[in-house]
Amino acid sequence: MKISIAGDHAGFEGKELVRRHLAALGHEVIDRGPDNEDRVDYPDFAEAVARDVQSGRAERGVLVCGTGIGMAIAANKCAGIRAANVVSVEFAQLAREHNNANVIALSGRFVDADTNLAIVEAFLSTPFGGGRHAGRVEKIMALD
Length: 144
Known about the structure:
Helices cover 48% and strands 17% of the residues. The chain has helices spanning 12-24, 42-55, 69-75, 89-99, 113-125, 132-142; strands at 2-7, 28-31, 60-65, 83-85, 103-107. Strands 2-1-3-5-4 form a 5-stranded parallel beta sheet, with helices on both faces. Helix 1 crosses helix 5 (113-125). The two termini are 26 Å apart.
């Protein structure tokens, strides 16, 4: 799978860990930065990942900041993006199964590294459930 990933200064370490993990699993990773822990504005990086997913350059996106909240909000401003701030494996599964999430935002400060890696794996492996959820996702997308 082709996955676009980015972080901010608070999520840099977590972004690097996830990037390496995804590559080791055989995924093609588009790293949108940053390249170090210098302070940056997270909306710029969330937008880069969202645009990759929006355009089809990537199938899914992963964002990492301090909480994941700001990046999810920023990514959701881009048409066609369904970004979820995810803090547990179960939330990742539900975001995919019920909401067909195409981007997740992780917390680099409040969720441990092993849990974030498990969240990413669940996000990538859980299919959209369709059925009763499809009409709801269509309604969400009509809000664009």
